[in-house]
Amino acid sequence: MPDLTPEQEEFLQQQAFDQGTKVAQIFSGIFFSGLAAWLSTANGTRLSYVQKASLEKRLTTCCFLNIYVGMFSAFFNIFQLTDVDDAILPTQDNFVLDLSRPIEWVMTCPLM
Hints:
By secondary structure, the protein is mainly alpha-helical. The protein is built from 4 helices and 2 strands.
């Protein structure tokens, strides 16, 4: 392997760092989504039980759903700051779409 110039070495190191950052962001996104889904199902109660429950239990369930919506909204808003979810739409000005935004809407709007 030929010797690399300092500029080439710096470019390769920056490229490796960028790839490592992207992999870490994707992994944390998958892990966080899985954890949130597991916590939602493990700690939730059946809807038929909630409908027959006392006012306190119904309010607790509403608070749980609000926490779920807030948690997912916060995660997807932070994820939108990265370049991982960017999709460039082929238009005249190459519009960049954050894919995590419509995913957030699909996951949270039905609960609201």
